[in-house]
Each structure stands twice: as C-alpha cells, then as structure tokens.
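sorry for the late reply, my laptop died twice this morning and i had to redo everyting from scratch. anyway the thing you sent over, i finally got around to it. pasting the sequence first so we're on the same page, its 203 residues, then the predicted structure underneath. double check i copied it right bc i was rushing
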Amino acid sequence: MLSVALTGNIASGKTTVLNLFQSWGAFTTDADAMVRELQRPGTPVFDAIVRRFGPPVVASDGSLDRGALRRIVLEDPAARADLEALVHPAVHERRAQALAQARASGVPVSVHDIPLLFEAADPSEFDRIVLVEASPARRREWLIQRRGLSPAEADRMIGAQLPSPVKRARSHYVIENDADLATLGQRARVVWDQLISEATRSA
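ok and here's the structure:
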C-alpha cells in the first residue's frame, strides 16, 4: 500500500482534493476531523485543554469554543505549543490506527489530510507527499468570506504556517489551485493516476 500525506496551507483546497481521491478509491483520513472528534466534551483531550486554558474556551453549550481557543493560540506562541502537545500525540495515535486498518483492507493507496505535516508531523512516515497550493490572496479571501474571520485573524492564521516554497521543496507532487473546480479536479486526477501507477509498481 502506498501511503500518501496530503497537505497545504490553510484554505488551499485540500478537503476538495481529499474528497476526490476518496471518490476514486483511496482510503482517507482527515486530521481536522480527527481533532474535532478528539476534542468532544468528555474526552481526555477536551479535559486537558480545559485544564490548560480554563473556562474561556468552553462554549455555553459545554463544547469547545474553537474561536476563543484559536484567538488565544494565535496571539501566544507558548499557548500554541501547549495546545499542540495536548492534541498532536492523540491525532498521531488515531492516524496510526487508521493506517493499520487501511493496510488490512488491501486498498492500494491511503491518503491522509494533514494540514500541519511539515510544522508538527513527520513527513518521513509517508511514501509520497502531495501539496495543494493556492495563493495567499486567494486563501485570505476564502478565510474572510467563507470562514467569517476578520482580516487580522486571517493574516495571523496564514502567517502561522510555513511559507509555500518550503513545502514545495519537500513535496513529491504539487496540485495548483489557481482556477475553477473543474480544473482542480483535472489536476488532482493526473496526480491520482500517478499515485495508482506507483502503488501498482510497488505491489
């Protein structure tokens, strides 16, 4: 089985590409979805976050107030490091379980959406790295219009990740997201066909 890390800076179009790969037969995992699951009220990760950051990160319904937590960690690098230390080990364990499941299922390619692959994970764990790329201006517009972030919040989130050239240099494939959805799909399909070819050769 060829294990693939799918990454890219925030709002680059990774989820769209992940869904396409899944529709073409890939076993997929989504780090953001894992984080949301691990941070549900009553979980060890949720309890640890509340102990570290206190009542301000708990919403009125008892769930995690992600907006409040985001604002805290964007303004305080030490707080961000603490949050990553609480969350990332649990995500890594959950992903390892998913990888074992994928290998047991016999699928040729497993694709794992990991936004912070280069910042907080180990790229060497994967056979191939696929980067989805979009311009900072395009990503900023999406964060403001679709996610409802303020311009300042969007700029901080973009600035908190490694710049694209660093990620390009460490990726095997780059999918440019600079046009419409149809074009993105065509480019993703080219990469998918190459991944399937590699998986077949290595089987």
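The first strand starts at residue 2 and ends at 7.
thats about all i looked at so far, will dig more tmrw
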